[in-house]
Amino acid sequence: MTTTSSTGATPPATAPATTASVNASAAQQLLSSLNSGSGVDTASLVTSLVNAQFATKAAALQARSDALTTKISDASTLKGQISDFASALETLVKSGSLVSQPKSSDTGVLNVTPLVGAKLNGLSGSITVSQLASAQTAVSTTALASRNAPVGTGQLTLTLGTASYNADGSMASFAAGSGTPATITIDGSNNSLSGLASAINGARLGVTASIVTDADGSAYLSLKGASGAAQAFTLTATSDDAGTLAAFNVGPGAAAMRLSSPAQNAKLTLDGVAVERTGNSISDLVQGLQIDLTGTSTAPVSLSSSTPTTALTNAVSDFVDTYNQVFAALKAQVDPITGDLRSDPAAQTLYRSLRGLTAQTLITGAAPGAPSMLADLGVKTNRDGSLSVDATALTNAITNNPAGVEAIFAYAAIGSDGLNAAMQKIKGDAVSTTYGLGYSINNTYTNAKGDIAKLQDDLATRQQQMSDRLTQQFAAMNAKVAAYKSTQAYMTQQIDMWTKSGND
Prior knowledge:
With 504 residues, the chain is of the alpha+beta class. The chain has three domains: 68-95 and 309-441, no CATH class; 102-132 and 267-306, no CATH class; 135-264, no CATH class. The chain contains nine helices and 18 strands. A five-stranded antiparallel β-sheet has the order 1-16-3-12-13, with no helix packed on it. Strands 8-9-4-11 form a four-stranded antiparallel β-sheet. Strands 5, 6, 7 and 10 form a four-stranded antiparallel β-sheet that branches. A hairpin with a 2-residue loop joins β14 and β15 (289-293). The radius of gyration is 43 Å and the shape is flat.
């Protein structure tokens, strides 16, 4: 799309003229052209008089409005800084990088990752995996010409349960579960391989049907259940009008659908205790730990943990750096002489909360000698309110009591222990629309600006009224002066005629 633009200069924007101002200007020009009236520029005179009357009030109102705009901007910026600070800390602690990192001695058998809120310091154990969990899958052995090829009409029954399997992978026996089997109806509306797959998926029993096509376009039906021993399934043609639906039977003695994997649980032992799970991703075996099984083993796989010394050191340093940036901005806003928010109670409360953070107890009921506040990690408050880190004290805290340091940085919600909980409370107080900066922005300052806007509108109305009144008065004066000049001109003409007549 082509656009064009003018190369000429854009004329400056002007305020729309009122009817009264247009009339006054026209009258002034007419009187001046006729050399009549008082000769005074009434338009300029009216403007000057009105400005002299209202300029001080208008300037005061505008100054108040500008000050409120600045407060809204400053409070919004401060609220955003606090929110971003707390959110960044929450993201960090949720990542699990600040808690002891679990280790597996053989990642070919299992991988381990910490869960949110995990406390894995001192983790130890051994796991032996004898069987992985899998889902039963079945694929038709006879190809159809295409996914739209007819399969016959009738009904099939889909049943979930448990099964045993032969050495060749075929199903040896099946025991139906407690759930209700699904009836799959194939008629003229869905008589195709695609229609059969859609009907099986529509049963919503956890068996997924899909169509696989080979290089020449021939189509096969593929069925896959959910993982776990109790998710085996059979598919049986209970009504087969043309005798063709039986080609999709799955179960003991059915040969047209080949089973490529069985439905079975994962089997493993944890410290000598045998357990089973329906999947290979396990999060309820070791508290705070997700275990992902990747293979089987005959020898036990050892579990251990390591303290994230570098991550914790960096976290404390990054926290202090960010705190100092936010605190400096807040301190400037509440400065008793120059701060725009010096009279804002929410900003003052926020200032006190941040200043008291280093001395706040973050871990209630901490063991003797265990760190319970930031000061115990070597975080010191300077005379100006900023923070600094004693690197030696921090290193000693991590070395001597890693679990206690991790507890301070463990994930916890508002009202719980930990630095994140404390920061989330500060964030909540800051953004609150009931008593925090959110309230100051949305109510105190915005409402005050609305009140000033009404006063400005009232003042503008009074200015216009005065302007109209003066314009009318000066117009009447000009009319009288014009009449006087007309009389003067007439009398001058008569005198000139009399004088001329006497001379003649």
